[in-house]
Structures are given as structure tokens and as C-alpha cells.
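R.M. (postdoc): so does anyone remember the format we settled on? I'll just put the C-alpha cells first.
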């Protein structure tokens, strides 16, 4: 098998967002001040504090945490790092079973094995999705395992993290990736993958993702199936994205087509992997674009369901109820017309 053929086989099996994920801090783009700060902390790795990374989606928070784990723990980083997505397991059961058990194993190994790493790392992605009860339980574990474990919390909304956890962490605020850096990175990927591209198409990707580099790479890969990326292919890829499907769901709900909207909602959650909070965020944007008569009522409704989800309510039930209420609003609007 020649190199070109082997390269082609690899591309078909690997998501570009993983293939081009940085593996060390120097490869992270657009977060220079944060990387400088982390490198300063690494001068004394044994004194590394707990960390809290906050900022918009797709701008490098999780990647930075994984790069940091590699640099601190070396070849054993996978063994000594526990990565959890708190939006999937966000209750107190996850804290007691997964986090506490991992921290306890570290205490045992320190007593039994010489030259063990000074600590293990627990990365809690989407930590702002954890219930307040779970976060409170986590606070005690942070205190009890401070000599053996370091926590890296990752969140989109800092206000959703309880103050006792914030106060025990050094907070790093990640900024959105500017257009030139996103487009430049997409160009590098195109050249590496031998994909022809129209520069306008790459700017169109940025326009849709608004600095979300992860989403930009996914759209680029989807649009590149023919080996050439142009604006029409990008538009098609965007049309098939989860965000665009949210628009369709909202319109169906407002037209009182509850069953259809619910089926598409389930597809969005379980096939496309869109989180319930992202659904509400994009639904909020879409509703404002529709120029409805009573936006204050809709805003209050979205805030109510966002609050319920943050407190651990069942996401599928709550979002279905949200669609049902949108349907009632649509009926009221039709009657008034």
C-alpha cells in the first residue's frame, strides 16, 4: 500500500476534529495569555492548583486540559486522568461513585507504590451542567483529596458553578477564536488533506459558527466530501447541522405539530448529540429571529426550563413540555389573527 492510499484510508476512519486536536500547549491557538499562565504554573507542577476553564463552546478548553494532563503526567497520562462529561452524568451519584472512587484509588496507590506521580487529574467537562447538590458534594471531595488529586473544571457559564468551587480554583477565561485564526486553521487542514477550497466558503463557515473552531472543522469535513469546498457545499453542510434542525423543530412546534417536533427533537438529542442546554440556547436565538408578538412570555418560558434543567429535571420530558407550550402559543397567535 502506498503512502497516498494509506493516508486516504486513515482519513475515512478519523474525524478531523480529533485528527487535528492539539497534543501540547504550544499548538493551542488564540489563547496566548492563558497558555503563558499555565506554563508559569507548570514551573512548579507539584504546586499546581485546581483549575477552572470557562468560555464559549469549541474554543479549546477541553483540549487545553488534555494537553496539560499530558505535560504533567507524561506517558501515563491516560491512566492517571479521569475525564467525565458532567452533562451526561451530572447528579450526586456520579460524584460519589466515579469521582470519589478515582480519588480514593490514588490515596491507596501512594501508600503502596514508590515514585508514583504526585497526583492524578480529574477533568469535569461541562461542569456547569452539574446539579447544585452534586457540586456541593464535590466540594468535600476536593478538600479531602487535595494532596493526591487535581481538578480541572470546564464550563460555558461560570455563574452556574457554586462559589465554594470557584474560590478553590484558579479561573481562566477563554476568548472566542477570531475569524482570521479560524480561517487560517481551516486552510491548513485543507492543504494537509489535499482539499481544494474557495476562501469565501471558509469565511462562510466562520459566519455560521461564530468562532467555534470545533464546529467549524466538523462543517469543513462534511463539506469536503467531493474533494472541493465551495460556498454551496458549505451551505449544504450547514443545512444538515444540528443547529439548523433546531430551527425546523421550533417552527413545527409553533405550528402545533407536536409529535413531529418531538420526534425531531429526539433525533437531535440522541443522533446528533446536541445537549439540552445547547438546544435551549439555539432555540432562544431562533425564536428571536422569528419576530413573535410576545417575546417576553417566550423568554420567561425559556428561562424557566433552563432553570429546571440546571436543577436536574429529566431533559427529554422538560424539552417535550417546552415544545408543547410553544404549540399553545402558536394556537393563541392564530386565534388572534
Amino acid at each position: 500500500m502506498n503512502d497516498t492510499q494509506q493516508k486516504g484510508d486513515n482519513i475515512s476512519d478519523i474525524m478531523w476534529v480529533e485528527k487535528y486536536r492539539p497534543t501540547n500547549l504550544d499548538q493551542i491557538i488564540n489563547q496566548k495569555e492563558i497558555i503563558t499562565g499555565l506554563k508559569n504554573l507548570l514551573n512548579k507542577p507539584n504546586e499546581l492548583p485546581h483549575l477552572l476553564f470557562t468560555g464559549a463552546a469549541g474554543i479549546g478548553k477541553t483540549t487545553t486540559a488534555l494537553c496539560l494532563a499530558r505535560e504533567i503526567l507524561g506517558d501515563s497520562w491516560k491512566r492517571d486522568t479521569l475525564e467525565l462529561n458532567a452533562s451526561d452524568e451530572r447528579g450526586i451519584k456520579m460524584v460519589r461513585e466515579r469521582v470519589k472512587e478515582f480519588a480514593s484509588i490514588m490515596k491507596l496507590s501512594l501508600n503502596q507504590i514508590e515514585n508514583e506521580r504526585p497526583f492524578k487529574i480529574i477533568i469535569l467537562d461541562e461542569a456547569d451542567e452539574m446539579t447544585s447538590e452534586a457540586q456541593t458534594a464535590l466540594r468535600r471531595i476536593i478538600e479531602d483529596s487535595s494532596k493526591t488529586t487535581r481538578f480541572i473544571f470546564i464550563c460555558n457559564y461560570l455563574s452556574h458553578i457554586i462559589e465554594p468551587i470557584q474560590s478553590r480554583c484558579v479561573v481562566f477565561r477563554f476568548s472566542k477564536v477570531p475569524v482570521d485564526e479560524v480561517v487560517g486553521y481551516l486552510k491548513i487542514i485543507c492543504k494537509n488533506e489535499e482539499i481544494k477550497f474557495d476562501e469565501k466558503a471558509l469565511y462562510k463557515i466562520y459566519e455560521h459558527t461564530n468562532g467555534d473552531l470545533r464546529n467549524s472543522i466538523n462543517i469543513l469535513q462534511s463539506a469536503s466530501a467531493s474533494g472541493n469546498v465551495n460556498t454551496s457545499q458549505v451551505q449544504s453542510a450547514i443545512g444538515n447541522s444540528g443547529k439548523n434542525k433546531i430551527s425546523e423543530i421550533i417552527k413545527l412546534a409553533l405550528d402545533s405539530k407536536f409529535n413531529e417536533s418531538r420526534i425531531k427533537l429526539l433525533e437531535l438529542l440522541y443522533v446528533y448529540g446536541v445537549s439540552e442546554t445547547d438546544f435551549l440556547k439555539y432555540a432562544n436565538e431562533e425564536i428571536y429571529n422569528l419576530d413573535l408578538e410576545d417575546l417576553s412570555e417566550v423568554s420567561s418560558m425559556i428561562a424557566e426550563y433552563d432553570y429546571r434543567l440546571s436543577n436536574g429535571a429529566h431533559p427529554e420530558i422538560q424539552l417535550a413540555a417546552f415544545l408543547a407550550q410553544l404549540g399553545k402559543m402558536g394556537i393563541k397567535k392564530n386565534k388572534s389573527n
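R.M.: ...and that's the designed sequence above, right after the C-alpha cells. Also worth knowing: The domain at 179-239 is CATH 1.10.8.60 (Helicase, Ruva Protein; domain 3). The chain has a mean pLDDT of 83.
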